[in-house]
Amino acid sequence: MKILILGSNGRLGSALTRSWSKFAEREMIPLTRAEVDFSDPEKAEAVLEALTFGTGDVIVNCAAATDVDGCERDRDMARRINAEAPGRIARLCAARGARLVHIGTDYVFDGMLDRPYTEEDQANPLSHYGVTKLEGDREVLAASPQHCVARVSWVFGPDKPSFVDAIVRRALTNPDAAAVHDKTSSPSYTEDLALWLDEFLKAAFPGGIYHLCNGGTCSWRDYGEFALECAHRSGIPVLTTSVAPLKLSEMLAFVAVRPPRTALDTSKFTRITGITPRPWKEAVEKHFTHWRP
Ligand SMILES: NC(=O)c1ccc[n+]([C@@H]2O[C@H](COP(=O)([O-])OP(=O)(O)OC[C@H]3O[C@@H](n4cnc5c(N)ncnc54)[C@H](OP(=O)(O)O)[C@@H]3O)[C@@H](O)[C@H]2O)c1
What we know:
Blueprint: E1 2-6, H1 11-20, E2 27-31, H2 41-49, E3 58-61, H3 68-73, H4 75-96, E4 99-105, H5 128-143, E5 148-152, E6 155-156, H6 163-171, E7 178-180, E8 184-185, E9 188-189, H7 190-198, E10 208-211, E11 218-219, H8 220-233, E12 244-246, H9 267-273, H10 280-289
Parallel strand pairs: 1-2, 1-3, 3-4, 4-5, 5-10, 6-9, 7-12
Antiparallel strand pairs: 8-11
């Protein structure tokens, strides 16, 4: 079985490539932006067309324009990378009998619900990042009933720093920490995503949309504060474990509008696989047992 990972240098793509390379029966084919550049979707498709893959093989697309404000500034670029290229790749996979697992985002929702979003909830993106990611989801699902969209949120892990690493790194030299308290979601640990997404590689895994993240809901402030506590417990010399609250409306540097509440409901995934994602706090704790500045 061949597994092609697009965006293999990214936070999630690196974790999948590393975790799945230990299985001898799988031929891992990591592909970076330098090899398959989505900013020219036609060329990206041509590069993949020249590779040998087919029935039984899976492409996992972790590549995306993930700079939310950058997508607002360069809308054409965002559409090419997040929607047009995945659409072309999805149709190529369908023509070859291969399956595409496409990574989606909680930012397709407007964040106005007061409960976690299910796969059936109406998407209503507030940013161009969200708009183009939703277009990508739809292009992928339209290409084949076997293709999957796995929507994740607040991705963190050992391969590339994210919010929790930044807040801990800053606290090594600065005792003042602050984070937004009125924006909530569910963190997604890449080490866990590698285990959960493994299920999607099975030929019988049903196509469609799935929400995947760790259990529970938190604000950026809760998430940052817990990361600092874990770091402290792991012997990392942080100068503070408390995080002052900021309001989302005070984040004047944000260009794109962020949805306030985008926790994801993962019960569909649990129903199909029997796997219940562990709580986000357990995952963050685990992350900081291995962490080095
Ligand atoms: N990070 C989050 O909190 C979060 C939240 C919700 C959903 N997601 C989704 O999760 C997926 C993985 O995100 P991540 O956290 O791993 O982000 P990431 O670290 O930014 O990875 C994105 C990957 O896309 C690649 N890429 C960017 N522009 C490209 C282009 N023009 N052509 C080909 N590849 C390109 C990047 O390549 P380089 O390494 O060369 O830059 C990188 O490998 C994405 O679909 C994202 O929308 C992420």
